[in-house]
Specification:
about 550 residues; alpha/beta; Rossmann fold; 3 domains; eleven-stranded mixed sheet; five-stranded parallel sheet; 19 helices
């Protein structure tokens, strides 16, 4: 039986130019030139403050309702905050560090810093709240030399602040100032009257001004401070606008939890809303027990037009949508697009999302993805055509070029474009290592064409270049592909898996169980973890 059609959505035509080089490499480019784009994000805020002053820009939960800030109010606050930052000696070499989770105050402060040419440095709250020795946070502070630190809840971050020592750097809080440390209330900064200094600083901001310093995850060492310029951020949003044409139809409404300390939430999503005059509802929930319920509650109030998530986020949310038809129908009621990134999406999750879309609307809401990194602000390739399955990461965005270089059994991906970082903050050694002799950024990922005879079908993500390994037999194991295949084959009982077997006789899998999925097979087990792990129905499912 054929599947229902896709909901109509205005995309740019999927076309690509392919140049084959003498060494066997291929260079893929969009034939669509990148149009002119604003030289700085501040112009977008000014644009919408003039065109839609009363429209809500940022919102966050406040009791039973929402605290909302309009575009007009946001611009007013940004100018006051920018003046206050300048008054306190912040500048290109004395950035603003933000320790807190996403929030209205956090967003306004980041925009204010960028408005005045001051780098904004949003730091993952985990470095403050989950670390015992705060080693990575100390390293970031030593590298960045901040002029001011923001913590929405001062007492919550008191231990981390004591660990790093602020020296001559001052602390700003929205509420709950720490008892043992002096701080400045954010309200004091908001009361600042903007003057000639902020106007002069804003005029001086240009495409090559450092807008942000975003830190990589540091999973294999200390985090790297990636310079994000205004050019990177603005060119990326122009590229998105040229391939996702439907964004011009109406202002997007986005409910999002993805952290602004990472490029997916902080650049792709935040700036997309700003570029198109939309509304960003800050989701205080997260895809984990005890916090996903906040996301579900928010979704009963807000029907998004775009929904962004990582595969784990969809995995945790799906049971709620599957068990509550009213929530499902509300979620899909005006949804234009479902977008996943950050990791590979198992096909089993894809099919469950598709089934929910059909049940709610009778059509398939397009599901797409993209590919990039902190160093690319973030989009290099993007999907702008309907897909039948997960795994395709799209085609090069306008202005970007992707070079596919033979590397063993894989095609290594290297990139150029206006969205590529000029380097790492105060680490010229790391910057030199990141680019090849021809100036291509070496991201370390691999890819292949979905259909070599039809390159317009897109690139498929093929794992990391360095993650594959050989068994004792000499057989190559493609770990990334095998991981996704294992999760899909074990759906719904496997949440994630680690592939092992380097220099061993056989492949091994370290499996992380999906307790919610196991409950569907073993309803009598309830919340008993041991019973869910040992349930016969689960064993039978895995043996099938």
């Amino acid at each position: 039986m054929p599947k229902p059609p896709f909901a109509p959505l205005d995309f740019a035509s999927p076309v690509v130019e392919v140049e084959v080089l003498a060494d066997g490499s291929q260079v893929l480019r969009s034939p669509q030139a990148l149009d002119d784009y604003p030289p700085k994000l501040g112009l977008l805020l000014e644009q919408w403050a003039a065109a839609a002053s009363d429209r809500t820009f940022l919102a966050e939960r406040d009791g039973d309702g929402w605290r909302e800030v309009s575009y007009g109010a946001a611009l007013k606050a940004v100018r006051s905050l920018a003046q206050a930052l300048l008054d306190r000696g912040l500048g290109p070499e004395r950035p603003l560090v933000l320790l807190s989770d996403n929030g209205v105050d956090n967003g306004l402060l980041q925009l204010a810093a960028m408005h005045a040419g001051i780098p904004a440095v949003p730091v993952s709250p985990a470095y403050s709240l989950m670390s015992r020795d705060h080693t990575k946070l100390k390293y970031i502070f030593e590298l960045v030399t901040p002029g001011l630190v923001f913590a929405a809840d001062g007492e919550r971050f008191a231990t981390a602040l004591d660990a790093v020592g602020l020296d001559d750097c001052r602390l700003v809080v929205s509420s709950n100032p720490p008892a043992e440390r002096p701080s400045i209330p954010l309200a004091e900064l908001l009361a600042t009257v903007p003057g000639a200094a902020v106007d002069a600083a804003y005029t001086a901001v240009g495409p090559d001004t450092v807008a942000k310093i975003l830190f990589t995850s540091g999973s294999t060492g200390m985090p790297k401070g990636v310079i994000n310029t205004q050019r990177m951020l603005c060119s990326n949003q122009q590229a998105i606008a040229q391939v996702w044409l439907f964004l011009a139809a109406h202002p997007p409404a986005v409910l999002d939890w993805l952290p602004w300390s990472h490029t997916f939430g902080g650049n792709h999503n935040f700036n997309l809303v700003l570029r198109h005059g939309g509304t960003l509802y800050v989701d205080g929930g997260k895809p984990m027990p005890g916090l996903i319920e906040q996301t579900v509650a928010n979704l009963t109030m807000i029907a998004p037009t775009l929904y962004f998530n990582v595969p784990r986020g969809f995995d945790v949310l799906l049971p709620f949508l599957e068990q509550d038809a009213a929530l499902r129908d509300h979620f899909f009621s005006r949804l234009d697009l479902i977008f996943y990134a950050g990791a590979a999406l198992p096909q089993s999750l894809w099919e469950r999302l598709e089934a929910l879309s059909i049940a709610a609307r009778g059509v398939r809401v397009p599901m797409v993805s993209a590919w990039g990194s902190t160093e690319t602000a973030p989009m290099i390739t993007t999907v702008h055509f309907p897909l039948e399955h997960a795994g395709v990461i799209g085609l090069p965005a306008p202005g970007c070029a992707v070079k596919m270089v033979p590397n063993g059994q894989k095609q290594e991906l290297r990139i150029k474009g206006p969205n590529i970082t000029p380097g790492y903050w105060r680490r010229p050694d790391l910057t030199a290592q990141a680019f090849d002799d021809d100036g291509w950024y070496c991201i370390g990922d691999a890819g292949r064409l979905e259909d070599p005879e039809r390159p317009e079908a897109g690139i498929v993500f093929d794992g990391r270049v360095a993650e594959d390994f050989k068994l004792l037999s000499g057989t190559w194991v493609h770990a990334g592909v095998l991981r996704v295949t294992a999760i899909a084959a074990g759906a719904p009982v496997i949440q994630d898996a680690v592939v092992t077997g380097h220099d061993r006789a056989e492949i091994g899998l370290l499996v992380f169980p999906n307790l919610a999925g196991r409950k569907t097979l073993c309803p009598k087990a309830g919340d008993d973890v041991e019973a869910l792990l040992g349930c016969d129905a689960v064993r039978e499912r895995l043996r099938a």
